[in-house]
């Protein structure tokens, strides 16, 4: 097998999805599985559906196109506002998109009409994180705007927190979203079928709250894929954190001094922290670097320490591990390392099919 490669345990993804679906369904909250960190992988999407996800979301039309071609029989949502230059493609590959701009909505409507159909719209509301979203005072107007477009169907409202500024979802913000849903419903004279409360960062609130109000859906990526909630990066109870493993190959193995020698200036990626330790290190160089992943997001095996990294090399202290050139070392990944590995053209992805117990 080639290295570096990202190994995906699909059973872990299905189990994590099932665990989250089971925790949220008593509260009336569905799970939309977000595939973007796995680059819209069909196998990952199918594992999410096996685990009970009620739909799939991705931020890239390229990924949704692949999923559409697979005929998974589920609702596909484009979870980033379509680019104005991409509305035709967006309408072709997704049933629903998250939106904030009237010019995009008009173009989506026209694109949907050209295809002889209607495109579902969830309007995103700005609730303080300052990424995408319509200001609260403008939501009713935006809803009326969608209602007047023949190619669009207003399905609901949504919000996204804790992505740009780290603003945490809480009861007050979610109550505000629910109240807005009710005013939109009053203005439009019908019930909205989607109230999309947020991403994995909403889990803490959703699981603790005894009143989720009108929130009936969360868009979950990280929680399913890595078993973590992103606010404190705590492991979610009962979830697996081992769905992804990044495997790299040793290309040099030598005992070397712990300290560099010579006049110290900048390294390839700026100023490196001073080397620590002294004496001799059993140093392994792995064929893995910043072009493959985010080295800061790697957890090495016990006893191995990451010492440094550049575009194409990862230097580790092998500790007591008996490593030789050609051996492989497996790392756990965080969200940043996962996203980079999944999208790097240099990293092979290999899905492990479910092992039935
Ligand atoms: C990425 C993304 C999600 C999923 O986020 P996770 O933290 O991985 O659960 C949900 N909604 C939107 C709009 C996103 O961009």
The ordered string of helix (H) and strand (E) elements is: EHEHEHEHEHEHEHEHEHEEEEEEEEHE
Ends apart, CA distance between termini: 26 Å
**How would you classify the helix and strand content by structural class?**
alpha/beta
| Helix-residue proportion | 25-40%
Describe the structure.
- The chain is of the alpha/beta class and 357 residues long.
- Helices cover 28% and strands 25% of the residues.
- It contains 10 helices and 18 strands.
- The chain has helices spanning 10-24, 42-50, 61-69, 87-93, 102-114, 139-147, 171-188, 203-208, 222-226, 335-343, and strands at residues 5-9, 30-34, 55-58, 75-78, 96-99, 119-125, 152-159, 194-196, 217-220, 228-229, 234-235, 244-257, 280-286, 298-299, 305-309, 314-317, 328-333, 348-352.
- Strands 1, 12, 13, 14, 15, 16, 17 and 18 form an 8-stranded mixed beta sheet that branches. Strands 8-7-6-5-4-3-2-9 form an 8-stranded parallel beta sheet.
- It is elongated and about 75 Å long.
- It starts with a strand and ends in a 5-residue tail after the last strand.
- Residues 34, 36, 59, 79-80, 160, 199-201, 219-223, 230 line the site of pyridoxal-5'-phosphate.
- The site of pyridoxal-5'-phosphate has 15 residues, from strand 9 and helix 9.
Set down the secondary structure blueprint.
Layout: E1 5-9, H1 10-24, E2 30-34, H2 42-50, E3 55-58, H3 61-69, E4 75-78, H4 87-93, E5 96-99, H5 102-114, E6 119-125, H6 139-147, E7 152-159, H7 171-188, E8 194-196, H8 203-208, E9 217-220, H9 222-226, E10 228-229, E11 234-235, E12 244-257, E13 280-286, E14 298-299, E15 305-309, E16 314-317, E17 328-333, H10 335-343, E18 348-352
Parallel strand pairs: 1-18, 2-3, 2-9, 3-4, 4-5, 5-6, 6-7, 7-8
Antiparallel strand pairs: 1-12, 10-11, 12-13, 12-17, 13-16, 14-17, 15-16
């Amino acid at each position: 097998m080639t290295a570096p490669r990202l190994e995906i345990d699909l059973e872990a993804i299905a189990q994590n999805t099932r665990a989250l679906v089971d925790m949220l369904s008593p509260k009336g909250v569905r799970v939309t599985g977000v595939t973007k960190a796995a680059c819209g992988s069909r196998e990952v999407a199918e594992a999410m559906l096996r685990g009970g996800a009620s739909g799939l979301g991705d931020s890239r039309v390229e990924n949704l196109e692949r999923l559409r071609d697979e005929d998974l029989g589920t609702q596909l949502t484009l979870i980033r506002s379509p680019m104005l230059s991409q509305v035709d493609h967006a309408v072709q590959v997704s049933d629903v998109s998250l939106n904030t701009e009237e010019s995009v909505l008009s173009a989506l409507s026209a694109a949907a009409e050209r295809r002889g159909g209607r495109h579902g719209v969830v309007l995103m509301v700005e609730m303080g994180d300052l990424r995408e979203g319509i200001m609260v005072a403008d939501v009713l107007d935006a809803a009326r705007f969608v209602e007047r477009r023949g190619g669009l169907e207003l399905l609901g409202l949504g919000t996204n927190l804790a992505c740009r500024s780290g603003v945490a979802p809480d009861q007050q913000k979610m109550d505000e979203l629910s109240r807005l849903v009710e005013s939109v419903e009053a203005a439009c004279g019908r019930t909205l079928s989607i109230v999309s409360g947020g991403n994995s960062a909403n889990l803490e609130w959703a699981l603790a709250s005894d009143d989720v109000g009108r929130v009936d859906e969360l868009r979950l990526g990280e929680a399913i894929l890595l078993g973590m909630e992103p606010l404190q990066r705590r492991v979610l109870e009962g979830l697996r954190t081992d769905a992804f493993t990044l495997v790299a190959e040793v290309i040099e193995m030598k005992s070397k001094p712990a300290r560099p020698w010579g006049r110290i200036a900048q390294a390839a990626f700026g100023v490196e922290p001073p080397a620590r330790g002294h004496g001799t290190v059993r140093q392994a160089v792995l064929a893995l670097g910043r072009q493959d992943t985010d080295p800061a997001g790697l957890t090495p095996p016990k006893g191995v320490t990451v010492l440094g990294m550049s575009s194409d090399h990862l230097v580790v202290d092998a500790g007591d591990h008996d490593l030789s050139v050609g051996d492989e070392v497996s790392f756990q990944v965080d969200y940043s390392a996962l996203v980079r590995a999944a999208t790097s053209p240099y990293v092979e992805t290999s899905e492990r099919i479910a092992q039935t117990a």
